[in-house]
Amino acid sequence: MRNGSAGSVCLLWALTLLVAVPVQALAADPLRSWNDGPVKQSIIDFVTRSTTEGSPGFIPPEERIATFDNDGTLWQEQPVVQGAFLKEQVKALVKEDASLALKQPFKAVLEGDLALLSTMDEPELMALFAATHKGKTQEEFAAEARTFFKTARHPKFGVPYTQLAYAPMLELLQYLRAHGFQTWISSGGGTDFMRVISEDTYGIPPQQVIGSDLKEHFDDQGGHPVLRREAKVDHINDKAGKPVGIGQHIGRRPVFAAGNVRSGGDIQMLQYTKEQPRAGFTLLINHDDAQREFAYQEKNDASLKAARAGGWTVVSMRQDWKRIFPEGR
Known about the structure:
Elements (H helix, E strand, L loop, with lengths): L1 H19 L2 H4 L11 H14 L13 E4 L12 H16 L9 H5 L3 H6 L2 H12 L4 H14 L15 H12 L3 E9 H5 L2 H5 L6 E11 L6 E10 L5 H9 L6 E5 L6 H8 L6 E6 L15 H9 L2 E4 H4 L9
Parallel strand pairs: 1-2, 1-5, 2-3, 5-6, 6-7
Antiparallel strand pairs: 3-4
Helix pairs in contact: 4-7
């Protein structure tokens, strides 16, 4: 009897300790690069609700679509990586036609005016791509992009661009996939450019990448068929073009979407995700960490205003992220 009482006391003591320890601490933290707080908790709460059968917020697995902007959302965008790649392509183009070196925007690109590239919108970048990549096959373009990613280094951090994916967002992608979400990229960048690195960098297969595109045509090429790029823009996957691209490629509205503060390019995608019969989760990354990365805002604060009006979750990189880049970067 005495032994039984002692056992009961031990059991009661153990249960007391169990209750005292936060549930999150008992398991590996899937979002370990996020500081504890309202933003991190809101993500966990949404995923818990949407994957718990019987919950009012339950989302069937086939409807768990999450879309992410790329530049400034999944990795750094100062400079825009595709703009840095474009500079190398313009150099090659000028070797064939020296007169281009005196024309804008080719002149500014050649002079290394990364500030100009950072202010260029997606249509301007894609127009340059049309000039530099007409006639190339998908395979030729992919080979050039792979070479760039192997050799290019970020001007401030001195490492390959693929090492500058945000650690908290990589964890978020893994966390969502572990709970049955499909993770897609929906970015203003070139589709074929992002597809070269999407799987190795983010775990997102190339068929789940939506971006801006040039027109292409089928070329039999003497029994060796290829797709060849044209000097015409087919689709700009920016601003209002993002919901269009999502509808064409996925056929479902996202229930989770993430973008960032820069040029207002993600506003419509986040609105499209938030405003539906089942309100989706919308995440906006605010670049306010000049010490660890960069600090910049839109001139008119359009994205932050839209976030306040729409009830989006805003991430302060300075306050909400323990670290910006993966360990060992």
